[in-house]
Write a structure and sequence with these properties.
Number of strands: 12
Radius of gyration: 28 Å
CATH architecture of the largest domain: Sandwich
Order of helices and strands: HHEEEEEEEEEEHEE
CATH topology of the largest domain: Immunoglobulin-like
Strand order of the largest sheet: 8-7-2-1-11-12
Shape: globular
CATH class of the largest domain: Mainly Beta
CATH superfamily of the largest domain: Lamin Tail domain
Length: 230
């Protein structure tokens, strides 16, 4: 009787062990399927990743589809005055105030470093690029930066301007905002394309009579995000 009992016990243990292996294979298969299937993003995916990969015209064509203000300060180009206007306006689209110290404007081969000016969230700062006269008229709500950003003039029919954090101007990790108009392929457009801040071959259509370009979508990363007018 003891031999029968021992044999039965060993048989039950063997069956239980074999069943555990089968259950493990059954449980891991759905995980593999979920990982490789084309479905909605994982609910645990960071929001910032989603924002950075959807800066497109299609995603931000409507006001209520734009992302919330990013954490901290984030500066982008919002207005470029052309010809006699000669100015650049940058806006802080972040949720916190931030300093423009360390930021640069570039119209290759000319560069300008911003002074230490703090811009509240949602507010703007304006700097002249071709001299101050009656044509320099930034919005009354914008902080007017003293001095001149000597990177102009901005040809109304053709040009570019990039905003950088730091002075490594060929580095896609340093450029934070960009626009080119009249044609594509300017000195820093390749850097902006590599940074996924601008589409290859894209440009805002302007003419010799165009006086300014203003962003209608923030951050502006496509020619369709800009409007040009007199």
């Amino acid at each position: 009787m003891r031999r029968v009992a021992v044999a039965l016990t060993l048989a039950v243990m063997a069956c239980s062990y074999g069943g555990g292996e089968d259950n493990t294979a059954t449980e891991t298969a759905p995980e593999t399927t979920r990982t490789t299937s084309a479905g909605p993003a994982s609910p645990t995916a960071p929001t910032s990743t989603t924002v950075q990969t959807t800066f497109t015209t299609e995603a931000y064509g409507l006001e209520d589809e734009r992302p919330a203000s990013p954490a901290g300060a984030e500066f982008v180009l919002s207005t470029v005055g052309l010809g006699g206007l000669g100015e650049v306006i940058v806006q802080n689209i972040g949720s916190e105030p931030g300093s423009l110290a360390g930021y640069w404007l570039c119209q290759r081969p000319s560069y300008y470093e911003f002074p230490d000016v703090t811009v509240p969230p949602g507010e703007s700062a304006a700097v002249a690029v071709t001299g101050r006269d009656d044509s320099f008229g930034p919005p009354s709500s914008a902080i007017e930066i003293e001095g001149i950003a000597d990177i102009g003039p901005f040809d109304a029919a053709n040009g570019e301007v990039g905003l950088y954090l730091g002075n490594d101007f060929s580095n896609p990790d340093a450029i934070v905002s960009y626009v080119e108009w009249g044609s594509s392929g300017h000195g820093r457009s390749e850097t902006a394309v590599s940074a996924r801040l601008w589409p290859a071959g894209g440009f805002v259509e302007t003419s010799a009579e165009t006086r300014a370009m203003s962003a209608t979508v923030l951050p502006p990363t496509d020619p369709a995000h800009w409007t040009a007018g007199g």
